[in-house]
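Q: what sequence does this backbone want?
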C-alpha cells in the first residue's frame, strides 16, 4: 500500500471522527412577533440554548424576531406548510386554526396571572392545543403576552364612556372586537408591526397591549394617555410544524417540549421583571398614566355578552372548566 494511500485512508478516518460542529446540523427556523428587547426574544434564546446544548449540536436554532418571517397569521401559515419550523404569536391570531382558542381571549375571564397559568399550563391548555394537530401544527407550550391596557392620543380613559367613538387597534379576535364595540369604540384589527406607524399618523387613535410590549414597541412616543385596565389576558401559543415534529426521534420530541417549557418560564419571568421598568419608561416619555381604575363598569358591560357569544358557538363546558380553575 503506497504512502499516498495511507494518507488518504487516515484523512477519511479523521473525517469520520470529526467533532459535531463539522457535521451537518438541522436548521430550525424560529419566528416571533417581538423586537429583540422583548421578553418573547428572551424565551426564544432560552429555547435555542436548550435545544442546541442538549442535542449536542444536532440542531441549530435560527431566531427571526419582529415578524421577519411574516405577520401573525402569515407566520402561523408558514409553520403549517413547513417554511417555518417553530413560531410563537398571540393567541388571537389562531382563530383560523382553531376558533375554540378564542375562549382564552374573553375579557375579564382570568382573575389573576396564577389563574391564567393554571389554565394554559394544565389539562385545559393541552385540550385546546391538541386541536391544532388537525391543521398541521404541534402545540409545544403556551407562552404569554400578558394582561392588556389601553393607550390613546385623544383623552384619558377612566370609564367605558370615554371610549365612545375612539378608533383603536385591536387583535383580530372576535372576543376583543365585540368587547370594544360594546364599549362604544371602533375596533380596527391590524398586525403589531403596523401599529406604531398607524398611531403616529393617527390612522388609529390608540391601541391595547400589555405594559411591557407597549414600552418595547415604543408606543409611548406616539401616545398621550395610558389606562391600566388589564381587561384581557393574551396567551401566545408556541407551535411547530406537525410533520417536522413527528419526524423527530422520541428523545428529540421530548427535548423540544422541554425547551418550549423552559422558554415559557424565562419569557414570563422577563415579563414580570420588566413590568415596573416599562411603566417608568412610559411615564418618563410624558404619557399620562391613569391607574387604580374601577374596572367593574368595563366588566359588567362586556363579560356576559362576550362569554355568551362564545358559548353559543362552542358550548359552555370549556368556560366552566376555566372558572373551576380559579
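A:
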Amino acid at each position: 500500500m503506497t504512502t499516498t494511500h495511507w494518507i488518504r485512508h487516515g484523512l477519511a478516518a479523521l473525517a469520520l471522527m470529526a467533532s459535531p460542529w463539522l457535521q451537518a446540523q438541522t436548521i430550525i427556523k424560529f419566528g416571533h412577533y417581538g423586537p429583540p428587547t422583548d421578553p418573547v426574544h428572551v424565551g426564544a434564546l432560552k429555547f435555542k440554548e436548550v435545544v442546541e446544548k442538549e442535542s449536542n449540536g444536532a440542531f441549530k436554532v435560527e431566531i427571526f424576531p419582529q415578524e421577519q418571517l411574516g405577520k401573525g397569521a402569515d407566520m402561523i401559515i408558514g409553520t403549517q406548510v413547513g417554511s417555518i419550523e417553530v413560531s410563537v404569536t398571540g393567541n388571537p391570531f389562531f382563530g383560523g386554526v382553531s376558533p375554540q382558542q378564542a375562549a382564552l381571549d374573553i375579557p375579564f375571564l382570568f382573575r389573576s396571572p396564577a389563574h391564567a397559568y393554571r389554565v394554559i399550563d394544565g389539562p385545559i391548555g393541552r385540550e385546546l392545543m391538541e386541536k391544532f394537530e388537525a391543521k398541521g401544527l404541534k402545540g409545544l407550550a403556551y407562552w404569554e403576552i400578558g394582561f392588556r391596557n389601553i393607550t390613546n392620543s385623544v383623552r384619558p380613559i377612566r370609564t367605558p364612556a370615554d371610549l365612545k367613538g375612539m378608533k383603536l387597534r385591536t387583535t383580530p379576535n372576535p372576543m376583543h372586537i365585540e368587547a370594544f364595540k360594546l364599549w362604544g369604540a371602533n375596533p380596527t384589527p391590524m398586525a403589531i408591526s403596523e401599529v406604531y406607524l398607524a398611531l403616529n399618523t393617527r390612522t388609529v387613535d390608540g391601541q391595547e397591549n400589555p405594559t411591557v410590549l407597549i414600552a418595547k414597541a415604543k408606543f409611548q412616543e406616539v401616545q398621550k394617555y395610558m389606562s391600566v385596565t388589564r381587561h384581557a389576558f393574551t396567551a401566545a401559543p408556541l407551535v411547530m410544524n406537525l410533520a417536522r415534529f413527528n419526524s423527530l426521534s422520541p428523545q428529540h420530541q421530548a427535548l423540544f417540549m422541554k425547551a418550549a417549557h423552559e422558554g415559557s418560564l424565562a419569557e414570563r419571568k422577563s415579563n414580570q421583571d420588566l413590568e415596573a421598568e416599562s411603566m417608568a419608561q412610559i411615564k418618563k416619555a410624558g404619557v399620562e398614566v391613569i391607574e387604580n381604575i374601577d374596572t367593574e363598569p368595563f366588566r359588567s358591560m362586556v363579560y356576559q355578552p362576550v362569554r355568551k357569544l362564545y358559548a353559543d358557538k362552542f358550548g359552555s363546558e370549556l368556560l366552566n372548566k376555566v372558572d373551576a380553575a380559579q
